[in-house]
Amino acid sequence: MKAMILAAGRGERMRPLTDTCPKPLLKIGGEPLIGWHLRRLKQAGITEIVINHAWLGEQIEHTLGSGNQYGVNIQYSPEPSGGLETAGGIATALPLLGTQPFLVINGDVLTDVDFRHAAQQAQTLSADGTLAHLWLVDNPEHNPKGDFSLFSDGLIRPNTDNGEALTFSGVGVYHPDLFQHTAANQRAKLAPILRQAMSSGQIRGEKHAGLWLDVGTVERLHEAETMVGQLAL
């Protein structure tokens, strides 16, 4: 199974730190944020990694290289200035990701989602015809109404008025077919594509009750420093 780490964002809310350093390379516990993902992917037996980048992407490639220091093999998917948004970035990287379901992780979250479980979900996607499996979390202060609703049958629906309203963690397993109508090298957001598939009952997921933090501000970067010791490696 392959994994993609999304690392193309500008990190506007993290300025001035991100004026000279891409957000995925900001350090937490002495390790670049993206390094925690790489270590946990290796631990889960997922060693073929794709990383997209745009802002200061050359720093990401220079720092991580081939991935050898983490025991993984990294391929890069460069994007133009400003990036391609999530769906556009994934669609552009599909030639590197292959034809089987793959794991995608936001580069700016700190989480202990069990990546070994992702491989099991990938097999289920191929078997039952659903297009994605998402991990959802309790709504943080900055997103009190949530993104989607999780229902008892495991399906996720776009309307947060019913079911349990939760926030998308930024971690999901996707079948390549989800992006069959998304053009490569064009900007495209992920949420509208997910909502359309949800309306057809093709997106399922689960609630993650463990460690999760959206490291999107300087304040949350400091918070991450106090939480990183909870990651089991």
TrEMBL record:
<dbReference type="InterPro" id="IPR005835">
    <property type="entry name" value="NTP_transferase_dom"/>
</dbReference>
<protein>
    <submittedName>
        <fullName>Nucleotidyltransferase family protein</fullName>
    </submittedName>
</protein>
<dbReference type="Pfam" id="PF00483">
    <property type="entry name" value="NTP_transferase"/>
</dbReference>
<dbReference type="InterPro" id="IPR054790">
    <property type="entry name" value="MurU"/>
</dbReference>
<feature type="domain" description="Nucleotidyl transferase">
    <location>
        <begin position="2"/>
        <end position="226"/>
    </location>
</feature>
<dbReference type="InterPro" id="IPR029044">
    <property type="entry name" value="Nucleotide-diphossugar_trans"/>
</dbReference>
<keyword id="KW-0808">Transferase</keyword>
<dbReference type="GO" id="GO:0016779">
    <property type="term" value="F:nucleotidyltransferase activity"/>
</dbReference>
<keyword id="KW-0548">Nucleotidyltransferase</keyword>
<dbReference type="InterPro" id="IPR050065">
    <property type="entry name" value="GlmU-like"/>
</dbReference>
